[in-house]
Amino acid sequence: MYGNKRVLVLGLGDSGFSASRWLISHGAEVTVADSRENPPQLAKFREAFPSVSIHLGPFDDMIFGGVDYVVVSPGIAIAEPCIARAIAKGIEVIGDVELFARSVKHWPSKVIAITGSNGKSTVTSLVGHLCESQGLKTVVAGNIGLPVLDALTMAEEDIADGEGHPDVFVLELSSFQLETTFSLHCHSAAVLNISEDHLDRYNGMDGYATAKSRIFQQCDSQVLNKEDWRCLAMQKQTKACFHFGLGLPEKVTDFGMVETPSGPWLVKGGDALMAVSDIPLAGLHNAANTLAAFALLEGAGLDAKAAIPHVGSFKGLAHRVEPVVTVNNVTFIDDSKGTNVGATEAALKGMTRPVLLIAGGDGKGQDFSPLKAAILQSGKAVFLIGKDAQAIADVIGTALPVSMHSSLEDAVEAAWQAAAAGDVILLSPACASLDMFKNYAHRAEVFISAAKQIAARQQG
Questions:
Q1: Distance (Å, rounded) from C-alpha 247 to C-alpha 245?
Q2: Cα torsion 81, 146, 27, 30: sign
Q3: In this predicted model, what pLDDT tens digit does every residue of 63-95 receive, in sequence order?
Q4: In angstroms, how far is CA 238 from the centroid of its own chain?
């Protein structure tokens, strides 16, 4: 399909490198462009593909001349003037997920896809775990870490070696990836929730929600959060639909929760599934994530009930409400992956002990006002860092003690000095990390190191 085609790949991050490698292996004539003068993958790319032409610096119309396709990385907005002009001229602009979709369209593998503002990495990982635990050959890829075209390459190699197709692809997809995806056929697909995020790229919440809804373009079954009106508005009457939420099910196909004398249980319609207390991840938001995973399995024609025994062995994700260390009965919890307001709200609402919250960073144009109620519910004090610290402080006002800190290490130390036995020191920034750190994992490393230094100090 791409043999002898001229393809321009925009962006030399992980997905751009992956797309270039896959296209070259399939016979395309690739040119790469990155608006940065020194992208982080540059040396590695030049070593791997010394003959490929690379354009560095601001994009211009010249680089689009004579190309058959443009493959754009998720971090680059298709509203960029040069890209918009290329589209207006009829040049096809797609992403790596679209390349993947066209390649697997006639494969026997099932495709399960997940998007949403929060919880998508947890649900993607849980669905992958439940499929794999039942003996299905499962590939988890996408925004979660493994680029889809690297996953596709591995699958193609397995097929060539006679090992057969994957049984299931489980894909986490961002709104950015979905913007350039047109033909992905999903056996089941979910939008878990919609809360403010990436409003520096979209024209308001409607534009953001519309991008998320593209996951349903060619799906067999929809999975929707019945407690989120923006999700419910995406329901298509021509598709099978499974709702999930923490309330009582209204239909036999709904996944929900009921209170029993022994505590809350997850149910499908009137059928009991499992006790919430048996879910290894804390917080009711993880009960909702588990319900979404069951609904996705059911929507893809897999047996959700058969997956129940395997929920208990799921380990959860790094940097997502992850306990780090407990010192003098004060627990440090890493939720660095909480990069937007909705994620931090969920983390706070799942806490049962007083919280000293460390937050702040690059808010990406979000409205921080929804944080206030969640902070007041379980918060004891707030310690702020980063570019948008003052914006968060303005929302909280004088409701709780708030302090500003020039570094994460200083914020951790101040939270420790203010903590009492039984408290939680929670890093859940509600913001992106790039104003101060390489990424959210780097931010987590700094937090973990500071917490462990306090633990070592206390141990003498």
A1: 6
A2: positive
A3: 999 999 999 999 899 999 999 999 999 999 999
A4: 28
CA dihedral for 193, 199, 204, 209, sign (positive or negative): negative
Instruction: Write the burial class of residue 213 (CB in 10 Å: 0-12 exposed, 13-18 middle, 19+ buried).
Output: buried
pTM of the model: 0.81
Place of tokens 């003498």: 460
d(CA 231, CA 117): 11
- State mean pLDDT over 299-312: 95
CA distance 422 to 328: 8
d(CA 190, CA 257): 19
Question: Pick from 122, 142, 121, 135: which is nearest to 166 by CA?
Answer: 135
Residue ranges at the known binding site: 116-122
Question: What Rg, from alpha-carbon coordinates, does the chain have?
Answer: 23
Closest CA to 151 of 174, 135, 168: 168
Give me the DSSP letters along 202-223.
SSHHHHHHHHHHGGGTEEEEEE
**273's tokens:** 């599934």
Closest CA to 141 of 96, 175, 103: 96
Q: What is the token pair recorded at 171?
A: 């894909």
CA separation for the pair 19, 142 (Å, rounded): 12
Q: Which residues are catalytic, by number?
A: 120, 143, 198
| Residue ranges at the known binding site for ATP | 116-122
Residue 25 has φ and ψ, to the nearest 5°, of -65, -20
Task: Output the CA torsion sign for 339, 340, 343, 346.
Answer: positive
Neighbours of 331 (CB within 10 A): 17
Decide: helix, strand or coil at residue 198: coil
pLDDT in tens, 227-259: 999 999 999 988 999 999 999 999 999 999 999
d(C-alpha 84, C-alpha 69), whole Å = 14
The pair of three-digit structure tokens given for residue 108, joined into one six-digit string:
């026997």
